[in-house]
Amino acid sequence: MPIVLAQIGMMSMGVVDTVMVGRVSAAALAAVALGNLYFYTVSTAAAGTLMVLDPIVSQASGARDADRIALGVQRGLLLAALLALPTAILLWPVRQVLVLFRQPPELIELATTYVRVSIAGLLPFLGFVVLRQSLQALHRVRAVVAVVVVGNLLNVGLNWVLVYGHLGVDAMGVSGSAWATVASRWAMTVLLFVGGWPVLRGALVPWKREAFQVASLARMFRLGWTIGVQQVLEFGVFAAIGLLMGLLGTPEMAAHEIALNLSSLTFMVPLGVGAAAAVRVGHAVGEGDVGAARERARTALVFGVAFMLCTAVTMLAIPAVIAAAYTNQPTVASIAATLIPIAGMFQLFDGIQAVSVGVLRGLGDTRAPFVINLAGFWLCGFPVSVALAFHTPLRAMGLWWGLVAGLAAVATLLLLRVRSRLRGTLERVESATPARLSSAASGA
Q1: Cβ distance 441 to 291 under 8 Å?
Q2: How far is it, in rounded angstroms, from Cα 179 to Cα 121?
Q3: List of residues 6+ apart from 164 with CB closer than 8 A
Q4: How many other C-beta atoms are found inside a 10 Å radius of the C-beta of residue 440?
Q5: What is the DSSP string of 371-391?
Q6: What is the rounded distance in angstroms from the CA atom of residue 116 to the CA atom of residue 317?
Q7: What gap in Å lies between CA 133 and CA 121, rounded to an integer?
Q8: What is the rounded CA–CA span in Å between residue 40 and residue 134?
Q9: Count of the separate structural domains present in the chain
């Protein structure tokens, strides 16, 4: 539950930005949507790669291997610093990318400003991922929850001052929202380091020379990059749909941002459950308990899916009420009210795939989700989106029905992979002599 609350808190920062900028204009709302799509599409590769800490640290913790825990955390911080520079370089040419994809001219300058300001918060963004994943893997999440709460309060206050212009500050609109996010990210990372120090001290002091071994860092990167690319493929398909939505018009783009923001908020719960499953299953692997790994995977799937069924009912029941809470623009609200029920339709599949990915990450299986996301989202869902949006009268709704098709395919394949892996042999990652666990050895 604390991990779920932390995930919801992280997503709430984006909700606050969207709601507050949505009161400025439809163009400001759509520009922030474009800016966030580009920022997260690029930075997700680095952030996802750092989630390799889930199996490394949790399995080492389950095996009570203090040296492996320390090396995992230290190499995670080094990897975050190494990934920050190339990620920043890829973020900078946002204007050229948006022009290439023929986005509305009135949005390009605003979105470019948003992304380039956001680069200043990239290093703490990646550092926060390392600290959060490490603390989660060690079953110490109280500091994470407290820092996320403080970060949300800070973000609300800074948005109020910088977006609208209060306390003697000129109204900055979109750029003000970006600076509020940057400041909040720096503050949260510093606070999490301080708050988590009692736990992190043992992993960071003394600093081990082995942490700088190039071969070990490369091995960690090889294990983690498939997580990063898998998340890029997943987030990237939503980004691509956002770019296609921009071709339909600014109201459609703004409405898409509302529906996406809402579904992303509900997604934080199964995503948090999946993160918890990665830790719990990883601990079971480290302890050599195959039965516990299965039990924890089943529990996570039931919990994640049950919650998403509740959100699906809500989205199908009151879409217009939800849309009106996001914007006072009638055209935008009307389009959003047609997209929100479709978002409700894919809630179940979203829950299954989020939890399944977490279970597989805890098992150290990072390659299968990458292949499955490629097949499900890009070979199945995306072509359906394009066909329905531009070759039928469905337009914006067609783009979202393609997402439903892609998510259904991904969820089914991931669930089958989880079932297969939990029936086979499990092994620890980042161990000189990997411990192999079999069903026969556990008496299953």
Answers
A1: no
A2: 9
A3: 20, 24, 171
A4: 9
A5: HHHIIIIIIIIHHHHHHHHHH
A6: 39
A7: 19
A8: 21
A9: 1
